[in-house]
Amino acid sequence: xxxxxxxxxxxxxxxxxxxxxxxxxxxxxxxxxxxxxxxxxxxxxxxxxxxxxxxxxxxxxxxxxxxxxxxxxxxxxxxxxxxxxxxxxxxxxxxxxxxxxxxxxxxxxxxxxxxxxxxxxxxxxxxxxxxxxxxxxxxxxxxxxxxxxxxxxxxxxxxxxxxxxxxxxxxxxxxxxxxxxxxxxxxxxxxxxxxxxxxxxxxxxxxxxxxxxxxxxxxxxxxxxxxxxxxxxxxxxxxxxxxxxxxxxxxxxxxxxxxxxxxxxxxxxxxxxxxxxxxxxxxxxxxxxxxxxxxxxxxxxxxxxxxxxxxxxxxxxxxxxxxxxxxxxxxxxxxxxxxxxxxx
Amino acid sequence: xxxxxxxxxxxxxxxxxxxxxxxxxxxxxxxxxxxxxxxxxxxxxxxxxxxxxxxxxxxxxxxxxxxxxxxxxxxxxxxxxxxxxxxxxxxxxxxxxxxxxxxxxxxxxxxxxxxxxxxxxxxxxxxxxxxxxxxxxxxxxxxxxxxxxxxxxxxxxxxxxxxxxxxxxxxxxxxxxxxxxxxxxxxxxxxxxxxxxxxxxxxxxxxxxxxxxxxxxxxxxxxxxxxxxxxxxxxxxxxxx
Lengths: 344, 241
Fold this sequence. Notes:
heterodimer; A: alpha+beta; Catalase HpII,  Chain A, domain 1; two-stranded antiparallel sheet; 9 helices; 27% helix; 22% strand; globular; B: alpha+beta; 2 domains; 3-stranded antiparallel β-sheet; two-stranded parallel ribbon
């Protein structure tokens, strides 16, 4: 189990690298919007997992979409990882969370990697590369660094790239971050929970799985040539849900012997068995945003019986780090249910 | 307060440079050949990556590209006729192989192509295939460059398997960085300690690989029901196989 002091150091390392921390708010994924919805499991879901929200009844859900960047400024049009945190409200009053982002793979394997990454990938002044150096890159058949966005003066890009050059396990995640872009809508991006979980079937069989949300409306980013707009995602989802609900399919991929179970930097091949576990229907953006998202303290380890964490060290670290972060901003405490499969 | 943009006309010009005809000409005729000479790249081998994991050994993709000897409409028509005349034999043979999900012949430019999805080991697939329809396949192979060396294929089994493997497309991995690992493995590169890569070279490495290997399969392909073999699908659908 990750020590609370380590979790505090983790959160501090994140806060120290922010352009402008916002007291009382999340250090990263600071800008977000809460959305109300409901989840209905597919007919086959219950045959793979005994968790209550997979038994087929309609389950109320709270969803918080977010921009990955920390700090008070909203830059919807910047290329950035987006978050989708889902709380399934179970009939007995408890909850089960599923936290996902648009990043398919994480960029560090464990807490030590993260501390090293935080040292290397510091915020640095970010300027347009001189045109002569760009020509030099073109002549070497390289792609030069992107131009800064309007009002962007600092970035961690250069440090993250230096880290990736030195650590092959991080290359996929950091490469993906570089290409991730900005979605046209929060409802038009896929979200991946990156970690491995274990699910238990009614016959007692335990399977390693990874979850992802696939948007029914399809995936669509804004064009890279467009001048990025700072604020459009909140209004877009609000307007979209006034017209029609938005839906996501919950896909569960089943790992095989030999797949990386405890390492979120390693992808599983697309040849793994994939189960459609259910549909999340988003219905409205509630007026009370504090209750709908800001005051909900999501935790990737808050899991209904039938779902368990793997030994992924990053997942384990997130359990305490989310709690430390919650304490710092005065959010709702994490209450382990007594029968939770993973009390630690 | 908005920070004024530092973009100058020269910056705009340079940003658009790669899309200009002049730069494309320079890249095609000077830069790419120069870097191919300076940093030679071997073509990556075709077919799926070897794996012991079950899911990787069902629904494997074969993308066989075979350049026709006669690169004229008549030559293409002869190839089309060879397939049409032997359709029943080919389908019966594929039924007998039993591990094939889908197979089709396609003419693309001056190539006759066979695209198929099969279960199990590539070598066994080709061996079973020529055991059941080798004589028919000879009619197709005889129309293809280099085909004369391996016909009759049912009597040149190992040579024919190698011949097919060499014409099966390299499958670019689904993840960009796995492409780097493929190249390192082919070159026998071992990770030095500390690792000192340059990820910004990925575009050049891809360009040079596509120069060495003009036809490739992009990614591992989509599967609607991954993890199931042809036998399992037939059994679950009750097809009485």
